[in-house]
Amino acid sequence: MPALSALRSPGAVLHRATTAHLQSVYPGICEGRGFSRGVYIGRDLHGGSFTYDPWELYNAGLLTNPNMLVLGQLGLGKSALVKTYVYRQLVFGRQALMLDPKGENGALCAACGVSPVVLRPDGEGGGLRLNPLDLGLAGDLHTRLMERIRILSAVCGASLGRPLTPEERLALELATDDATPRSRWDIAPTLRDVVEALLHPSSGAAEAASTTQDALAAASRSVALDLRRLVDGDLCGMFDGETSAAIDLAAPLVSFDLSAVYGSTALPILMACVGAWFQGVLAGDPSTKRIVVLDEAWALLSNLETAQWLRASYKLARSQGAQYLAVLHRLTDLQAAGSADSAQVRLVRGLISDTETVVCYAQHSGELPATRELLQLNDEEARTISGLGRGVALWRVGSRSYLVRHWISPQEQAICDTDQRMRENLREFRETQGSTVVNSGDRMS
Ligand SMILES: Nc1ncnc2c1ncn2[C@@H]1O[C@H](COP(=O)(O)OP(=O)(O)O)[C@@H](O)[C@H]1O
Ligand SMILES: [Mg+2]
Hints:
Rossmann fold; 20 helices; 11 strands; disordered C terminus; binds adenosine-5'-diphosphate; binds magnesium ion
């Protein structure tokens, strides 16, 4: 623009003004409605560039919590947004811990120079282990015991598909206490130690529960056998020992590929175990700002115990310098998990109230009423969401809303392209279908 190049010419007197004032002399300039510090996300369709950083917004008093929810139908760009957001945040020294249930983060990891941590049961070529009870060195003995019980309750709840009974909870507490080495309190017990202590309770544990060792073992047998699944059963080899030294805690991106159990009932159990291990990392050094990405978060939210655990983790996020970022297709699944006033629905509402950044892609018309009600969207916001295309979302950041077209740079295309995988799957499917047709033709002739 001539006016601006004239300003840059030698000898020109530079003048700074806000975009709001410049609008009066040049109407083509829009107000920068977004917050100027943070990573570039894309275009604010009613303004200029849209940038975002939860910690900057928190420091500026525009957010009271850093957590984020990304919501929308399949294929509209949720994962692409999350991957590029993480990728761009790493430049600012942030660390990302990601749960990747579908195994989609390979290209992102490669771009960041790290390898994904692929968790597989022993029988399926596993090898890497995490100890979900390894909490780093934060807190005193009692605090750690309570934290471990919180984690174990979530893992058992996910596995049993129901909350623990008071007897089971007490037995778990006593077994975890017994499994914790007294002389080396810096050493974490393993799940194997806890299962052993549950199956064979000590006389001290029985005394503390005012019962016999046999009665205590019987009361907690379901819990013991369910946890045993992770130690000696079909899920063994991932969480039954010390954390593998090969897992680099200091890497900018630590992404856990859980695709070995995607689509099975074991997914929430693994997500809870890895999520629990994240807690130890977060407690270790709160000065690093971390993004914890929970893709397919419904798997954690659809179970009362894991949802409770997640709610408590969200509450800790601020003090740990962490942003929890959950990705969901729709909120109706969560509402269906219980009656309108059930504990689970109340938990989900609580989680949403602890999430001040909501990114909403288009929703099916049947899902809009629930989304609208749970997120308390106004008429205009609800109407806007129903007509959005791929890559465009309504961002609600604190009390303000923005309509943003997410931008993917040419260098980032490869880390976002899930269509390519879909095309490959479709080709493989067609090839298989083709051979089936030939075979059946052969039989007919
Ligand atoms: N803002 C965007 N611009 C262009 N292409 C996009 C954009 N967002 C997503 N895509 C493409 O759309 C496809 C589906 O996106 P994805 O993030 O996997 O969807 P979702 O996670 O919502 O199912 C990907 O191949 C991705 O590259
Ligand atoms: Mg996705």
